[in-house]
Design brief:
The chain is mainly α. The protein is built from 6 helices and no strands.
């Protein structure tokens, strides 16, 4: 039973990664809209994202919002929030891309930020496709291996 639960845990982690990356893609869309049509600052962007329920599972946004009024530079606040987030199912390249979003936010004019966001969306779409393929190919394998290894251990004990 425990091995089946472990298989399900790994399968769920793959699904959570895919879902989180899609939410980050929606977040980039929202940021692009805020910059393009409202000329929003990073503070306004974070405040808007923190209030939006769609991004409530991305806990680093709330952590940024809490610390945004301090004297610490925004890029450092963003990086620290990601480092302490509960998104443990993301891979290193996912974390690296999310950190680069915050590092590039608010450091250039509107056109530069729009271009950067489009570039990051392209990189993110590759990661989303990779996460989707990993989920489709490995999740059933993890669940099956969990069940079969549990059955094998049970037979060995008997």
């Amino acid at each position: 039973m425990i091995t089946a639960m472990i298989g399900n845990y790994f399968s769920l982690a793959l699904n959570n990664r895919h879902i989180a990356l899609k939410k980050i893609n929606y977040m980039l869309d929202e940021i692009a809209i805020l910059i393009r049509f409202k000329s929003a600052t990073v503070y306004e962007i974070i405040e808007h994202l923190a209030k939006d329920e769609r991004f409530s599972t991305l806990d680093f946004i709330h952590k940024c919002h809490v610390n945004i009024k301090t004297d610490i530079p925004f890029a450092k606040i963003w990086e620290d929030a990601i480092d302490t987030s509960s998104l443990s199912y993301l891979q290193k390249e996912d974390i690296s891309l999310i950190k680069s979003i915050g590092m590039n936010l608010g450091i250039s004019d509107m056109d530069g930020q729009q271009s950067t966001i489009m570039l990051e969306k392209e990189e993110l779409s590759t990661l989303i496709e990779s996460a989707k393929n990993a989920y489709l190919s490995k999740s059933k394998l993890y669940r099956t291996l969990g069940i079969l290894s549990g059955a094998f251990i049970s037979i060995m004990i008997i």
